[in-house]
Each structure stands twice: as structure tokens, then as C-alpha cells.
């Protein structure tokens, strides 16, 4: 009995390795795709760190993975803003601007990213491209709304968001 169990365990380990080998990441596809973007290193590191990349057949699949990453960063940013708003030490104009950014992230940015994934799935590339452009614009408006003397407490998040959506925009723009 024990031998059979050992054999089964061994078999499943071998099988899972075979599956992984069959789905090695297509480095040519990743390189070709990331060469179209303004941030090659960010593009490559984002794609290679995602297990879904193994199953990507073409540039469109990689575009979808990148947009999903942008959505993850948008969600993290929203959570960060939410935490700041809950902090009683933040008041007045800073609180108001953070509230606006929170609105922008929840209603505009996240919604558009989900629509972008839907458009990409339906091969509506022009719509997807316009959506990604709007996402970048909204991130800029949020960051730019902070003016002296109120320093943006979410610059790092907005910068990360702007960069990843710039990479996603470039890939989406390349699709035909
Ligand atoms: C990898 O991507 C290249 C470029 O898109 C493509 O020509 C090639 O067929 C792909 N290879 C595999 C194993 O899917
Ligand atoms: C961001 O949200 C605020 C408050 O809801 C709104 O007035 C503003 O137009 C939004 N900005 C963008 C770029 O959508």
C-alpha cells in the first residue's frame, strides 16, 4: 500500500514538472512585447513574476496580464488612500484632495481597467487604448491636484500607477 502511495506521489510530482515544462514562459514574446514599451525592465519583471505569463499565447494575453497588474496597483493605492483618510491627523484641504483621489481611483481608474480587460478580450483595441489613456490622465489629475503647501502623500503610488499604465498603454497601442 505504502509503495503505491509513494508511486502516486512521485507520479504527480513528475506530472506537475512536465506541465510546467510544457508551459515555459515565451521569452521571445516577452522581449518583443516589452521592447514596445517605455519601461522595458518594469515590463519584463512584471510579466516574468506572474505565473499567468506561462499561458500567454500572444501579445494580447500579455496586455491583459499587464492591465490586471495595473488594477492590482490601483487597488493598493485605493487602500492606502482609505487608510490616510481614516487618519484624524489629516484634515482640511489635504483630506478633501485625498477624498477626490479616492473617488477617482474607485469610480474611474478601477472601472476603466476592468473595461480595458473586457475590450481586449473582445479585440476592441481602440477602445482599450483610449481607456488606458484616460487611466493615465486621471492618475495625473489626482497627483497634480496637490499643490503647495499640501504635498501629495501618495506620490509613490501615483508614480507606480502611472508607470505601469504607461507600459500597459504601449502594449495595447501595439495591438491590431
Ligand atoms: C513565442 O513567441 C514568438 C513571438 O511572438 C512566436 O513566434 C513563437 O511561436 C512563440 N513560441 C511558442 C512556443 O509559443
Ligand atoms: C476626481 O474626482 C473628483 C471628485 O469626485 C471629481 O470632481 C474630478 O472630476 C475627478 N477627476 C477626474 C480626472 O476624473
Automatic annotation (TrEMBL):
It holds the Pfam family PMEI. Residues 25-171 form the Pectinesterase inhibitor domain. Residues 1-24 form the signal peptide. It comes from the Eukaryota. Gene3D superfamilies: Invertase/pectin methylesterase inhibitor family protein (1.20.140.40). Keywords: Disulfide bond, Signal. Belongs to the PMEI family. PANTHER family: PECTINESTERASE INHIBITOR 5-RELATED (PTHR36710:SF18), PECTINESTERASE INHIBITOR-LIKE (PTHR36710). NCBIfam families: PME_inhib. This is Cell wall / vacuolar inhibitor of fructosidase 1-like. It comes from Spinacia oleracea (Spinach). The lineage of its organism: Eukaryota, Viridiplantae, Streptophyta, Embryophyta, Tracheophyta. The gene is LOC130459516.
